[in-house]
Amino acid sequence: MEFQQIFFFILSLLVGSFISVVVIRFPLGEGVVRGHSKCRSCGHKLTGSDLIPFFGWFLLGGKCRYCDAPLSLLYPLLEWAALGIYFWVYFQVAPDYLWAGCILGWVLLCMSAIDIRHYYLPNRLTIPLMFLGIGFNGLYFPDQIIHSIIGAVAGYGLFALIRWFYQRLRNIEALGLGDAKLLAAAGAWLGWQGLASVIMLASLTGLMAGMILYISGKKQAGQSFGRMKLPFGPFLALAFWLTWLYGPFLIF
Question: d(Cα 138, Cα 38) in Å, to the nearest integer?
């Protein structure tokens, strides 16, 4: 195993915990680098034995050691998902692209979790991801960089236009600008040729999830299917991820 593979494997053991910090603190306006971790219920400062990656949540029985408040299942889920992304990339892409695949997957995981919990996609994640995609293509595929730039502009413009049109037509915000910026990032990484696959796959998976939630009754009372509040970011992120790994199945 080469140095890069060892480094990102070790990093994957730690990054899930960091992602959970970002998911919880970002929307609250709290810093994610400075400050000690603490229980969100009793405020007690957490020690290293409370923050053991992967197994800490289970060793504590899913409860705070100091106040017995239940700990969110978000922590182990994100830790295992971050490790899973590393292995997915390791077995799927060329070693030269391992760093890019891990960073892309981890950022998409983080944004999806934030959108699920708080219904928004932070500019501090979507915009840098877009520029990283342009930089990645410029570094490895310089002849494709124009497609990357066009993809970023087209991705943002398309969703921003749909958002504006739907608001004028039905006075409902069907898409947030965060979704438009995430699609811009997808266009930057995939080129404009991959946008159709991302939009189609995200729409299909989002529709399926919405139907399942509606049928299962996990909606607000009296809420129609067309007015269900369902974050679109996770489905965009999944479609973006699969298209980057396996290529577009549909081209404009």
Answer: 42
Coil, helix or strand at residue 38:
strand
Written as six digits, the tokens of 90 are 């390791």
Give the tokens for residue 170.
């039905």
Mean pLDDT of the 98-121 span: 94
Q: Is the pTM of this model over 0.70?
A: yes
Q: Which residue has the tokens 């030269």?
A: 96
Closest residue by Cα to residue 151 from 193, 202, 108, 105: 193
d(CA 210, CA 21): 28
Mean pLDDT of all residues in 224-230: 59
Neighbours of 42 (CB within 10 A): 12
Q: Are 8 and 98 in contact (CB under 8 A)?
A: yes
Q: What percent of the chain has pLDDT over 70?
A: 75
Give the C-alpha separation, 3 to 57, whole Å. 30
Helices of type H across the chain: 3-25, 56-59, 74-92, 98-118, 123-140, 145-170, 177-190, 195-216, 233-246
What mean pLDDT, rounded, does the chain reach?
A: 84
